[in-house]
TrEMBL record, chains A, B:
<dbReference type="GO" id="GO:0097053">
    <property type="term" value="P:L-kynurenine catabolic process"/>
</dbReference>
<dbReference type="InterPro" id="IPR015421">
    <property type="entry name" value="PyrdxlP-dep_Trfase_major"/>
</dbReference>
<dbReference type="Pfam" id="PF22580">
    <property type="entry name" value="KYNU_C"/>
</dbReference>
<protein>
    <recommendedName>
        <fullName>Kynureninase</fullName>
        <ecNumber>3.7.1.3</ecNumber>
    </recommendedName>
</protein>
<dbReference type="InterPro" id="IPR015422">
    <property type="entry name" value="PyrdxlP-dep_Trfase_small"/>
</dbReference>
<feature type="binding site">
    <location>
        <position position="98"/>
    </location>
    <ligand>
        <name>pyridoxal 5'-phosphate</name>
    </ligand>
</feature>
<comment type="similarity">
    <text>Belongs to the kynureninase family.</text>
</comment>
<keyword id="KW-0662">Pyridine nucleotide biosynthesis</keyword>
<dbReference type="GO" id="GO:0030429">
    <property type="term" value="F:kynureninase activity"/>
</dbReference>
<comment type="function">
    <text>Catalyzes the cleavage of L-kynurenine (L-Kyn) and L-3-hydroxykynurenine (L-3OHKyn) into anthranilic acid (AA) and 3-hydroxyanthranilic acid (3-OHAA), respectively.</text>
</comment>
<comment type="subunit">
    <text>Homodimer.</text>
</comment>
<feature type="binding site">
    <location>
        <begin position="127"/>
        <end position="130"/>
    </location>
    <ligand>
        <name>pyridoxal 5'-phosphate</name>
    </ligand>
</feature>
<dbReference type="InterPro" id="IPR015424">
    <property type="entry name" value="PyrdxlP-dep_Trfase"/>
</dbReference>
<feature type="modified residue" description="N6-(pyridoxal phosphate)lysine">
    <location>
        <position position="222"/>
    </location>
</feature>
<dbReference type="GO" id="GO:0030170">
    <property type="term" value="F:pyridoxal phosphate binding"/>
</dbReference>
<feature type="binding site">
    <location>
        <position position="277"/>
    </location>
    <ligand>
        <name>pyridoxal 5'-phosphate</name>
    </ligand>
</feature>
<keyword id="KW-0378">Hydrolase</keyword>
Length: 398, 398
């Protein structure tokens, strides 16, 4: 045990990202491994929000739509997220929930795919909301849903496929799916690739432009630390922007929103993905939160993420008797996101006890203990401690 | 001029709502008549939000979904709004933008109306986003849009009418439409009434349950003072709740959201109108803002609102030469919301000058000066001053 403890100290000392932890509000008593559900608070956000609320809303009031840049926040913040997911400026807009953006993306993709393509392939292991929304979109557009294992999507794409909706990283297992290969296979079949980046953005390079992704959505409250329920985003590849036809053409996406004309005329660019008035407090908290990414290389984040999850798995193997838990997260780096999911029959009893001892992960019913590793604020000593506490809790519960 | 000034002082002294002004962050140098666009900041909100951000997000983090009541906020806050619009508990849920809620309501109404009804009547004078979204909903459900003057909707409703989407108060003119009569006519024709309450909720009694309204939506950042882009709400009459079929069935509306099952099964009640993860910071600012309504009778608000707009029109008549501006807001109380809209050819030059002199209204292009009266914080002396400054500006611009 002390070997791994010592190793952790050395790894932390050599970690080029270690300094970022101080940018977050974290207490030493807690190992927070639930940043894949709700990212920790960047320490400078409260002061920024006090100014947004007290001065921008309280003193400037309506003038802030112009003077404080509220009106253009969705596209401005989209441009801040863009480099983290490999997109050029002007391709991402922030706003609404992930579910609402899935609806926009799926319906718009069926329209971009054109006539004669009546199938929507859906990641059968997806976070459920994507499936529910895709089903609703299919019902309204006259398409048929085909649920598939993501690995089978490239082979299943054909002349009837309009699009596939796939998660980049599975929320439950942490499995990283093959975005470049799947996207290429869909394109070869004449279909569109719609990716959900909720569990990858901010944890690993995505390369939306480079890999030719058509549309993508993601949330901002996990690895991007935007705050509870902070707005999601929508990516539209440049080649699709002129034909992007939103099912939610609210006034914020109008070419002349303050003309308030009865006829709808879509704005150019990513702005076309906007709908109604943005939730400014949540939106500006996200904008402030993104400051922690200034100067951070996503490749360095990925390297540390893999080192952390490797080390966690090594510590678990060392501390927990074989067979007591089973990792459902792939060993291969190419197939692993930034979390480790361990299954055990008594997971529902184990997780509260872990949390009571300061190791915060979460439970995915019925039997999965989920541990997310946010490289900007989780260290190797945290990781070793989490495995040690897990071993203690599992031993006590046996 | 001094007579009206004196009258204003007397009216303020006799105003039973005058004490509420102190609950808002307002400066004496400004007469804020734009609360029909963005309500003023309730003075206690910054401290509440500092706690939400610093403690609930920063310290409790993920635990706040349960322990701080984040998860149930949309329906809890819906129940706070309910008495202001005449709804029983359990019929309103907060979340998403007004535009997104219009989409939910219009699509769901076409489904509730059933087969054979292929027309959607739309208030032709509506705030444009309602029309854009209704058009999109109609395109997706195979309905036809019929734009009409709201006064003509009762007569136009017939066996082909699925629903009518109408604004309770016109955003531009401030005209109050006949909600009870229009709703009754639609019901008699077997059609549904969907009301947009953005410009009425918090300014006058609505009586959703009493008048048999089917569905309604509204924003919360105008007379409800929820903050910039605070979440909108959706009302579903009790008789429609079991059959309410949302086009945006996100995981938050699932009967067992944390079961994360692949099949969608809708929750009972207003919760069925939820979609994705709510924007907690904006949502909880709204919740705090609603405290100013504790113990306030909406009928008293309405009485003061009419007294304020009557007094403003009287002052304008006294101070501004006849014909210099023309009121496009109805004189009759039964047809007036809580704003006065004055048209003049040079409105676009007049409004910035008014704002520079501390009278904040807004411009609706091309020629409308819009002044909103929020009875909780606008007084009669404010009103007299606004008319006086308006007269000065108009005289200087002539």
């Amino acid at each position: 045990m002390s070997d791994l403890h010592e190793r952790a100290r050395e790894l932390d000392a050599a970690d080029p990202l270690a300094g970022h932890r101080a940018e977050f509000a974290l207490d030493e008593g807690t190992v927070y491994l639930d940043g894949n559900s709700l990212g920790a608070l960047p320490a400078h956000v409260p002061a920024r929000m006090a100014d947004v609320i007290g001065r921008e809303w309280g003193e400037l009031r309506i003038r802030s739509w112009d003077e404080s840049g509220w009106w253009t926040a969705p596209e401005r913040i989209g441009d801040r997220i863009a480099p983290l997911v490999g997109a050029a400026p002007g391709r991402i807009v922030v706003g609404d929930s992930t579910s609402v953006n899935v609806f926009k993306a799926v319906v718009a993709a069926t329209r971009l795919a054109g006539e004669g393509r009546d199938e929507i392939l859906v990641d059968a292991t997806t976070f459920p909301t994507d499936g529910y929304i895709a089903e609703s979109a299919a019902r309204m557009t006259g398409h048929r849903i085909v649920p598939l294992d993501p690995a089978d999507i490239p082979g299943a794409a054909g002349p009837r496929t309009a699009l596939a909706l796939v998660n980049h990283v599975d929320y439950r297992t942490g499995r990283l799916h093959d975005l470049p290969g799947t996207t290429a296979a869909l394109r070869a079949a004449g279909a569109l690739a719609v990716w959900d980046l909720c569990h990858s953005a901010g944890a690993l390079p995505v390369g939306l432009d480079a890999h030719g992704v058509d549309l993508a959505v993601g949330c901002t409250y996990k690895y991007l630390n935007g705050g509870p329920g902070s707005p999601a985003y929508l990516y539209v590849a440049e080649r699709h922007q002129a034909a992007f036809d939103s099912p939610l053409p609210g006034w914020n996406s109008h070419a002349d929103p303050f003309g308030m004309t009865p006829g709808y005329r879509a704005a150019d660019g990513a702005v076309r993905g906007r709908v109604g008035t943005p939730d400014i407090l949540s939106t500006l908290a996200l904008e402030a939160a993104l400051d922690v990414w200034d100067g951070v290389d996503v490749n360095a984040v990925r390297a540390k993420s893999l080192a952390l999850t490797d080390f966690f798995l090594e510590c678990v193997r060392a501390y927990v008797p074989e067979g007591r838990v089973v990792s459902v997260t792939p060993e291969a780096h190419a197939e692993r996101g930034s979390q480790v999911a361990l299954s055990c029959p008594d997971a529902a009893a184990v997780m509260p006890e872990l949390i009571a001892r300061g190791v915060v992960g979460d439970l995915r019913r019925p039997d999965v203990l989920r541990f997310g590793f946010t490289p900007l604020y989780v260290g190797f000593a945290d990781t070793e401690r989490a495995a040690r506490v897990l071993a203690d809790v599992l031993a006590a519960a046996s």
